[in-house]
Amino acid sequence: MDNGHYLRFLRPYLYQMPSPRASVYARFFSVSYRDPVRCKGSHGPGQVHSASRSRCVHSSAPERPATATANSDSPAPDAVSPTPRRLTVNSRVQKLKEYNALRYPRLGPRPNRMSVPSFRERYQDVTNASEEVVLEGRVMSVRRAGSKLVFLNLMGGYQQVQVMICLSHFSDPKPEPEQFKDAVRPLLRGDIISVKGTATRTHAGELTLKAHELPTLLSPGLAPLPHKLINQETMVLNKHLDLLANRRTSDIFRLRSSIIKSMRDFFHEKDFLEVQTPVLADYAGGAAARPFLTFATEFAQKELAMRIAPELWLKRLIVGGNDKVFEIGQCFRNEGIDTTHNPEFTMCEFYSAYSNLDDLISMTEDLITRLVNHVEHLAQNQLKFLENSKIQLPEKKWKQIEFIPTLEDILRIKIPNLSEADALPKLIEILGDRIDFAQGSSLTLVELLDELAGKYLEPLSRDEPVFITYHPACMAPLSKSFVCPKTGQLVSARAELFIKDREMANMYEEENDPFEQQRKFELQLETQKAMSPESEDHGEVDKSYVQALQHGLPPTGGWGCGVDRLVMLLSGAPRIGDVLSFGTLRNVVSIRQAAKD
Predict the structure, then answer these.
(1) What is the pTM of this model?
(2) Which three-class secondary structure state does DSSP give residue 102?
(3) Residue 533: what pLDDT?
(4) How many CB atoms lie within 10 A of CB 173?
(5) Planar angle of CA 137, 144, 106, nearest 5 degrees
(6) Distances in whole angstroms, Cα of residue 226 to Cα of each of 75, 153, 212
């Protein structure tokens, strides 16, 4: 360490200098530089001063030292800690004021304005162009080659192009050399600029905008823009930086939009009507989930609920004569957060009159095939930082398995009549130690069946997509039911699509008998009371929906899909937060607090 570099170890057991042969693993929390001339003969802490070097170290630690002075284009730290951030911003502000560049001008007329993607497409085969164009975008890199030549990489529309700013190429009257220096010296990575010039090619053949006048700084970047983010906490609390620094994040963000558009196109091509149904109401139905409760100024004494599913609203529209409807929108369930669940999520549901379960399965196969092919095309041509989803779709018929017969074959048991009152204890006795009953005495029949499906049926989808069909009737209170000729059990006309052990879609023939629907609603309430006996609110029968059925709901096929999970599957993202614009609810509520801290 005679060259003046020292490491400050923060671990108490590193109180001595390690032996020359010892390996030391440590995380850099600060880097200091000791001037061997000024501090010769002294090793006191007072003689060690902060290095003025622009190098920074990236690690997984959430804390970072302040690096990168305002007049350098070196990589910025991977985290945003308050005190260094304030110092960096203040330094940058002072530098911009020195050059009279701290401005945020309005945009004037730009008849020859062009986006970066349009510029690249239009001049892809051009060596030198004569027409002037204006490009606007964010500076992603600055490379200075002397006092009169600067190269920039400008990003706009998710693409980049090189800009060459050379004093000798400027139109008359040319600026003075000092004026040129003062205009380009404040430019840093992250600045948003406008520049006018013509298309040309460098000696290396790279398409370049040759500037004919000084660039206009439209919005200076005060805080440093990192070259790369690897710290998860920094990424979720500063999503704007994550999108700018990590192309994969940006590609998933764009992919989500493209998937939703492709789904909309699919339904519009089949003459479906897109609708928007209420998010706030005095009751949340259509699924078994805990809603978010709130109040409205107009109804101060009435408790309102945010919707957990749009199902009942959409089926009312079918009763109203709209034979094909669909909705893509937000739903809210006051439940936990994990890798595949978030309290706020996007749901796609469609309802088609005079469609049966076979029709729904066929439409599902068509839609998933379309989306998989669409994503593969995007990954090859536009979104090249996406991971390969590795989804192998069947060339012919997709696999279907029936719920009860398949379970009986796997477990080598005979499932008792699930419609009888004592079905749960009988089934538990038959299963013995085949499954771990974590719920204890509060375990319900529906929960047990769902646990069996998760352990024995859903894994069958790891190698190929699988439709699980004809669930026990108690698992689908809104579905039509019938007696299975194979098992003699009362089952629902329902199917679930699983791909790679994940549920992708749920579909069934809707119950349109108002008397049977009333009975199933009451049975559902009894199940909810058994699941949460300590809760005072178990919901109620939606009599308004039953009354709507009395006007006649035609035989209807209903279908639902969690869009977030679908994007996870197609993008290869391991967590639901990766496909949400600002992460999960846990991330969202932390953003403002992190800024305060």
Answers:
(1) 0.82
(2) coil
(3) 66
(4) 6
(5) 30
(6) 6, 15, 30
